[in-house]
Amino acid sequence: MLRAARRLHHPRWWALLVLGLWLGYALAMLTRLPTWAFPVVTGAWLLLARWRRWGAPANPRPTTRVWPWSLAPLALWGFYVYLAASFGEVDLGAVFFHLQAGISEHGGSGRIVSALLHTLGMLLLLAAFTWLVRVDRRWRTTERLLAVMLLAGNPMLYGLGQRGAAIVTDDGAWLDRQYVEPVILDAPRSPPNLLLLYLESLERTYADPERFGNAYEPLAALGERAMVVEGVRQLDNTGWTMAGMIASQCGTPLMPAGLLHDSQFEPLGRVVPGVDCLGDLLAERGYALSYLGGASTRFAGKGVFYRDHGFARVMGREELEPRLPDPDYVNSWGLFDDTLYDLTVEEIRRLERQGEPWGLVNLNLAAHAPHGYPARACRERQGEFDGTDILYSVECSAWLARRLVERLEAEGLLENTLVVVASDHLTMRVSAWEQLVAGERENTLMLLGEGIEPRRLRVEASTMDVLPTVLEAMGFVIDWHRAGLGVSLLSDQPTLIEAHGLETLNARLREETALQERLWEGLAPSQRTSAPDAVVAPRG
């Protein structure tokens, strides 16, 4: 016993344990291995280390004071593992965009604690690896090769390499040629109002009762009298809030400005100024437009985007919090959904009194990863929240959204109004992550209003198809049933995903620059010279 205890006190086992824990953790975060595989991988590592006598070679040599070449590659992998652990699937576009658009006023205080813990764990990993290389000559002679392998295999560096290669690609404008300027050819005699409800991270995948119980049931009940679209996939560069809203309102992925940004160390002064979006089109036709969201509009250029694209009133946490009956009833991101929706009703009443067509975009918070922010009204209805169960928050978000629509209908505020209920993007890592990634995932999209036949529409689409679909559902006639890269799902035209496949579009996004230049036209001279491609053949 004493001998075993002395062995455990030896730095060898502590170093090997740190390395094994990191290996198990990384594999659990980066693959679809179940969580219970984490300690299994660590145990297998320790058994292998004991068999190979790592850190205690049979022919020991004096310790050499060297610094491993692998330290920097390991640190880069540590950062990538942190992103995967925090968000599930790493989107480098999101990282680049938030760095340029601004990350002030975010509500992710828990992320800061997580980042600090990951940093501490990373320092322990680097120390353990350095000790092993210095003590065990076998590691010292092979770790340079390991450094090369770590660099070559890091997805972050691979992604950067693809973006660099886009500069010299043979055809960097295929996506740009697919882009169709949003043009309204004709409008209805009595243009309808528009209520666009974004439900943060509330993807339609949750509608599967076998995996998620009745969490989605309130929305499913609302969908019984709506057109429910099934199969709305997520393209790269559309998987975070600003990207999801831009995809669905502008018909294009949010390709970050990158070096096109004229001042690399200041937040963006404009967001996708080179394209017309839903707000631009409606504002030109006399619509009074408002945006209300529970979080700050300063985060990620949200306020800049809406003000720059036709919205006269843009209200987030800073503008709405002073109007709360209870100023302490807020969360780290901002307003809870029940109070946000109360203020939304007030804003719609104000818009109705003006007597002109209106549009209101609303973004909630209840199902925000990683655990959600269920409102007081939900706690009173659903019972105690354990602080981690995302399905509790999903049900809360769905129930409050349905209640808002029913409340507006009861007050007569939705006459001649199209209601669109959509998730802004697929959720990031949450407590139900393993169930979510067990099959294909899709976004929520449902439309309610006069002339919208209740039905289920199964189609391979993306959030880019929301813009033309909404315009046609409102009665507007648009050129070729297309807007941006989107195709109206009310037409028989095939979507880009149907015509070319999701992987093809994602590959193009990683390798092209012309569409990026279009989005950020004005920040850099445009190099576009080619005309749009011909429209693809109709579906079926």
Report on this model:
The protein contains 23 helices and 12 strands. The radius of gyration is 26 Å and the shape is elongated. Strands 5-4-6-2-7-8-3-9 form an 8-stranded mixed sheet, with helices on both faces. Strands 1-10 form a two-stranded antiparallel sheet. It has a two-stranded antiparallel ribbon with strand order 11-12. It is an alpha/beta fold. It has helices at residues 2-9, 11-30, 37-52, 71-87, 92-101, 109-135, 137-153, 155-165, 174-178, 209-212, 217-223, 241-250, 278-284, 302-308, 317-320, 337-354, 376-382, 390-410, 433-436, 466-473, 496-500, 502-511, 514-519; strands spanning 184-186, 193-199, 227-233, 288-293, 313-315, 358-363, 417-423, 445-448, 455-462, 477-478, 482-483, 486-487.
Condensed summary:
The protein has 540 residues and is an alpha/beta fold. Helix content is 46%, strand content 11%.
Helix count, DSSP H or I runs of 4 or more residues: 23
Helical content class = 40-55%
Mean pLDDT: 87
Q: Globular, elongated, flat, extended or rod-shaped: what is the shape?
A: elongated
How many domains? The number is 2
Range of strand content:
5-15%
Radius of gyration: 26 Å
CATH architecture of the largest domain: 3-Layer(aba) Sandwich
- Tell me the strand order in the biggest sheet: 5-4-6-2-7-8-3-9
The H-level CATH homologous superfamily of the largest domain, spelled out, is: Alkaline Phosphatase, subunit A
CATH fold-level topology of the largest domain = Alkaline Phosphatase, subunit A
* Structural class by helix and strand composition: alpha/beta
The first-to-last residue Cα distance is 75 Å
Major sheet attributes: 8 strands, mixed
What's the number of extended β-strand segments?
Answer: 12
